[in-house]
Structures are given as C-alpha cells and as structure tokens.
Specification:
alpha+beta; 8 strands; 33% helix
Length: 162
C-alpha cells in the first residue's frame, strides 16, 4: 500500500481508481502553450480568420511539423466571452488566443522551430495579425475529470486520417 500527496489530500494509492493514479506517473508528452494578442488594427473576426486558416495551412505544409507534433490545438475567444469572464470578478488574461502543441520531447519541438524556412514563414505570417511578444508556458495535463487524450497512435489533420 502506497500513498501519494495530492493538492487536496493524502490518497491511499491501493484504493485509487486507475485513471486517478495516472496523475502520479510521468507524462507521455510536453505541452507547449503560446499566448497571443491580436494587432490593435486587426478586427477580431479577421484575427481568427487568419489564425485558423492561412497560418494553420503554413504549419501543416511542413512535414517535420506534422511528424513531430502529437496534438495541435487553438483556443479561441471573443469580446463577448472576455466580457462574460469579467463577471467572475477575478483578473481576466489579456490574450486573444492560445495555441497548444504536444510533443514527446523538447528536442522534437526544437527540431520543428529550428527549420529556418519554416520559422521565417510562420513569423512573416504572424506579423500580419499577431501583436508581439508571444508568451509561452510549458507543462503537462493532470487529468482529473474526462477522457485521456490519445497521443501518437493515430492523428487526424483537419478531418483526414494520416
């Protein structure tokens, strides 16, 4: 019988549901989260159109990106959602979107972003709608409720199995 210390209590691991015990194991990926602000002269709809369309197309045109990235996700917001968040009476993050990349290792991420042509294409496109600087956070999930995401087994890119 073992015990793990959680932020809520001391848990007897012999009685923990398998999915709960996973929180104590080593994550199978690293999540890279980048926080973006739109340029002040770009409308919200235009920011989302450029970010969800042409910018994603540039990323997905790179074979190494598609090979090394396990999961690629954009978190979108709107002025309406930001206004609703203020109702919680806690500080609201001043970002217009978050992009998440899951990789097996930081070396995989470095191999993607060290491609000079790819990095230049992404940066050139970002200048059309993103206000520098972009903030970054590295982490992993500690799943407490919901289904575990599958990584590296089978990917879908815009609805196409690959």
């Amino acid at each position: 019988m073992g015990f793990i210390k959680s932020s809520f209590c001391l848990v007897n691991t012999s009685k923990v549901h398998t999915s709960c015990a996973m929180a104590a194991s080593k994550p199978s990926y690293i999540k890279i989260m980048m926080y973006l602000r739109k340029r002040p002269d770009v409308a919200d709809e235009e920011f989302q159109r450029l970010w969800k369309g042409p910018h994603v197309d540039i990323a997905l045109s790179n074979e190494n990106f598609k090979k090394k990235i396990l999961r690629f996700n954009q978190v979108l917001t709107s002025p309406e959602l930001k206004a609703q968040a203020k109702e919680f009476q806690i500080p609201v993050l001043d970002y217009d979107g978050v992009v998440e990349f899951w990789v097996k290792s930081l070396d995989d991420w470095k191999s993607v972003v060290s491609d000079k042509d790819f990095a230049q294409a992404m940066k050139t496109d970002e200048l059309l709608f993103v206000q520098p600087p972009i903030s970054v956070m590295l982490g992993y999930d500690n799943l407490l409720i919901g289904d575990e995401h599958k990584t590296g087994v089978e990917s879908e890119i815009r609805g196409q199995k690959c």
